[in-house]
Amino acid sequence: MSIATPPSPWRTRAAIPGLVAAEAISVIGGRMSFLAIPWLVLVTTGSPVKVGVVAGAETLAYVLSGVLAAPLQDRIGARATSLLSDVGSAVVMGAIALTGQLGFGVLIVLSSLAGALRAQADRSKNNLLKPLMDAAGTDFTRVSAAREGVLRTSGLIGASVGGVAIAAFGAIGAIWVDAASFLIGAALVAFFVPDPARKDGEPKKPAPAEPYLTALRGGFTYFTQEPLLRAVTGMLFFTNLFNQASAVVFVPMWVLTVLDSPVALGSVAAAYAIGMIVGSVVFATLAPYLPRYSALVFGYFVGGAPRFLVFALSDNLTVIVAVTFISGMVMCSVNPTVGAVIYQRVPGPMLARAGGIIMAVAMAGIPLGGVLAGLVVERLGFVNGVLLSSLLYFAVTLTPVIRHRVWRELNDAGARGPTADPAVALPRGYALAATALGPRVTLRYTDGEWTLHARSGLRRLAPRRVLRAKTAAHALAQLDAPAVHEAVRELARHEHDGAGREAARLRADLARMEFAMSQINVGLRPTHLP
């Protein structure tokens, strides 16, 4: 039996950045093809309907593949699936560039195949992240937040580069660039990401192959038995629905009716994206010290309905951009929190299947969002439609509060603080965040009473408790801090002196009372006449 060589330390450290870099390059290429393929259809057929058909075929294949091909990914392995899907996607994109102009039917087939392979490439990389984080001992929420920021930035870059590439090389040239991006992603995974199936240099024994339908049914059974996953997935469905309604109906209509400027359209979209990027950087630093439930609820309340409501209340672009930017910043807590909970809640053997189901349900809200928003605006008018949507979105965001018993399990997913090699100092930001938001136990003396408080971030660990002076003194005596001991002794002396003064005062008061009583008694004595 051959023994595999364990990955070198530098490769272990580079695995997560390498995987995220591969995803980022794939996102850039995907954004380019997202613009290039519809442009190719439009210039070759001149039909907007056919543009929608091709885009719909790719999206439908993406969603179905994420669910139906998950058991196959379990058999092949996440790393092998990622490599095969990336290489296959490069081949399919090349085929679109070579044959996409030959016929509309060929383009639909190739676009569907591209969507199916892209789903497997995305899901397999997503599933690879869990064993890498386990091996590195890093915080799931922090990595998810940092990854979210990188992917958002890549999407912004891809949209910008896509337009330039189409202008410079044409739609066919941009599709070739997308094909190259898949090959670069495959190379990064092959070089940087070790196979999670191999541990300590020993090849992992393959598990018995589970029948396809049994494995598929097992994924649905597991999903239906997890109330938190069902609740999170339902929220993602509505979030995507409302986000799509805003992106394709509300924002364009506001820009058209108020400013009639495509520049404003880009400004609103960029404000939200930049807000998400900035928020992801901040949240990645603070994530291990924040209660997940509170962070998610705050993100939905501040970044949800207000982002829609402002379009019905203001005609000022500056106000719209500011509110959109702030909404993007606070909403950055949602996806990393959900992603971290999925990583920690779902067992490794179920990750591909459960993740595919979650993705399918969450994405189902995207095609509905634009259609429903269009119908609402058509029937009620723009302002009334936005007001109704804002009210509905706010009602949806109340779900984590109403069903708090289920949603509070977000805090129980086993969050860990950051760990690092003892020889390498942590960044200063870790210490600052730990001091401000980490666990805090406070022993306080006020008005002759010792009290104990315990908090972690915004979460109270124990209610305020009154301690006996002897218990507090015993606890402080355990500290190797002479200054603290001296302060306690000084406090004891002050209390002793104060008690002596109070006792002297009471004795004086008692003496005065006794004298007064004696005078009263003298006055009450009977007088005997001679």
TrEMBL record:
This is MFS transporter. The chain crosses the membrane at residues 20-42, 49-70, 90-117, 150-169, 175-194, 235-257, 263-286, 293-313, 319-343, 355-376, 382-402. The keyword DNA repair does not apply. Pfam families: MFS_3. The keyword Transport applies. It is a multi-pass membrane protein. It comes from the Bacteria. It is found in: Cell membrane. InterPro entries: MFS_dom (IPR020846), MFS_trans_sf (IPR036259), TM_effector (IPR010290). Keywords: Cell membrane, Membrane, Transmembrane, Transmembrane helix, Transport. Residues 1-407 form the Major facilitator superfamily (MFS) profile domain.
